[in-house]
Automatic annotation (TrEMBL):
SUPFAM superfamilies: Formate/glycerate dehydrogenase catalytic domain-like, NAD(P)-binding Rossmann-fold domains. It comes from the Bacteria. This is D-glycerate dehydrogenase. Coiled coil: none annotated.
Length: 328
């Protein structure tokens, strides 16, 4: 890219690592420096006249935004999920869309497993108990939890992160069931997994962990009927997207004692309003959407997003492109 035709790029948040420094050598760069994402009006205004956007899952890239930015040629999302982007609308305007699969797989599975363990063994409750000065003596009945070894884990969506979760579970001596659109016979053979239907997974799993992308088919995948079909006392882990779960039904199932607990890295909306019933339940473990948040992984995601953007601005297919049909 010659210096006199440097494309204009807007990045909706400061990113970790050296990626934006590298990007600034190739483009006219503008970065939103505030902690909170640009409000909708600011995003529309700052996207006007740019050729490239680097976005986060907090930024909605839809038809009105594309109309406000007719010069746009590339949108690079710093996430593997891209439910914040209207990909069909981008494709119709020949705008390439990139994402960051793979690099966050192991880090996200680490956190999903950390949530599972933290929920089962009540780690956050135990920490609060000690800090509050409530610990008076060793007790045989204090903060009893659920065993992880020997329990059954049901994985919903055996993609990259689901498979990484299954590997961890096998290492901990768990039995692992899964549902997925397509069978994964190689993983079944290597990891000793069993593909089952939804009803069996819900009825037999002590823990259910969600790893599907948010799509029209997976919206409220875990609805009222599914929650009622879970094994009594079972626990739910969600590191996928908040809307994969019917959250009102989940709060009721937890409050009614039907479920043993839930660990949620993702919610609907994000952040949760402070009057959410989930915040009042001791058997709910919450995190602010940080499953991929390790120093190394967030740096790699930023770098990959920059690689995707630079390729698309150069007329090449981004290394990780969600609408590759634009590059036959
Ligand atoms: P992936 O490799 O594309 O895996 C997604 C899996 O879901 C695939 O196996 C797919 O099946 C399956 N699937 C899709 N629709 C389904 C349906 N209707 N019913 C059953 N299975 C279905 O994606 P990934 O990298 O594992 O990431 C999964 C999701 O995790 C992302 O989309 C994102 O939303 C979320 N995520 C969250 C965080 C976080 O910070 N909390 C971090 C990373 C990712 P097929 O194999 O048949 O296509």
């Amino acid at each position: 890219m010659a210096p006199h035709v440097r494309p204009r790029v807007f990045v909706t948040r400061q990113l970790p690592g050296e990626a934006l420094g590298r990007l600034s050598k190739h483009v006219e760069l503008r970065v939103w420096e505030e902690e909170l994402p640009p409000p909708r009006e600011a995003l529309l205004e700052l996207a006007r006249g740019v050729e490239g956007l680097i976005t986060l899952l907090t930024d909605r890239v839809d038809a009105p935004l594309l109309e406000a930015s007719p010069s746009l040629r590339a949108v690079s999302n710093v996430a593997v999920g891209y439910d914040n982007i209207d990909v069909a609308a981008c494709t119709a305007r020949r705008i390439a869309v990139g994402n960051t699969p793979g690099v966050l797989t192991e880090t996200t599975a680490d956190f999903a497993f950390a949530l599972l363990m933290g929920l089962a063994r009540r780690v956050a409750e135990a920490d609060g108990y000690v800090r509050a000065g409530q610990w008076r003596t060793w007790s045989p009945t204090l903060l009893l939890g659920a065993d992880i070894h020997g329990a059954t884990l049901g994985i919903v969506g055996l993609g990259a992160i689901g498979a990484a979760m299954a590997r961890r579970a096998r290492g901990f001596g768990m039995r692992v069931l899964y549902v997925n659109r397509h069978p994964k016979p190689e993983l079944e053979a290597v990891l000793g997994l069993r593909r089952v239907d939804k009803a069996t997974l819900l009825a037999e799993s002590d823990f259910v962990s969600l790893h599907v992308p948010l799509t029209p088919e997976t919206r409220h995948w875990m609805g009222r009927a599914e929650l009622a079909a879970m094994k009594p006392g079972a626990m739910l882990v969600n590191t996928a997207r908040g809307t994969v779960v019917d959250q009102a039904a989940l709060a009721e199932a937890l409050a009614g004692g039907r479920l043993g607990g839930a660990a949620l890295d993702v919610t609907e909306p994000e952040p949760l309003p402070m009057d959410s019933p989930l915040l009042k339940l001791p058997n709910v473990l919450l995190a602010p959407h940080i499953a991929s948040a390790s120093h190394a992984t967030r740096g790699r995601m930023a770098s990959m997003a920059v690689d995707n953007l630079l390729a698309a601005l150069d007329g090449r297919r981004p290394p990780h492109c969600v609408n590759p049909e634009l590059f036959p």
